[in-house]
Amino acid sequence: MAPRGNLTGFDPQKLAASSGAPPRDPWARYEAWRYTGPFSRWNRFKGAFPGLGIATVAFAGYLVYERIFLKDEHGHGDGGDHHGIAT
What is the DSSP letter of 46? Predict the structure, then answer.
């Protein structure tokens, strides 16, 4: 199936080719700081979820503590009637 044609007839590639844009962006030097150093993509991603690493370790530690030390020894999960309530 052939791609549909543009209804307006506007072609952005033709506009860019005919605009005579300079080969070098004069503002590139002023925009470079946005993507280097503390503003790099990795550093921005790393700071997106502050405390996630500490919270994950704390939650995993709690799960281990609960599994080892907080055993349910009363047998609530066997389905028996331990409280004298008839069903």
Answer: H
Greatest alpha-carbon pair distance for the chain in Å reads: 89
The 3 state secondary structure assigned to 6-73 is: CCCCCCHHHHHHHCCCCCCCCCHHHHHHHHCHHHCHHHHHHCCCCCHHHHHHHHHHHHHHHHHHCCCC
CB 39 within 8 A of CB 33: yes
How far is C-alpha 22 from the chain's CA centre? 37
**CA distances (Å), 26 to each of 13, 36, 56, 63, 67, in order?**
21, 18, 46, 56, 62
Contact criterion met (CB below 8 Å) for 35 and 41: yes
pLDDT tens track for 19-66? 775 667 778 778 888 888 888 888 888 888 899 999 999 999 999 999
pTM to 2 decimals? 0.41
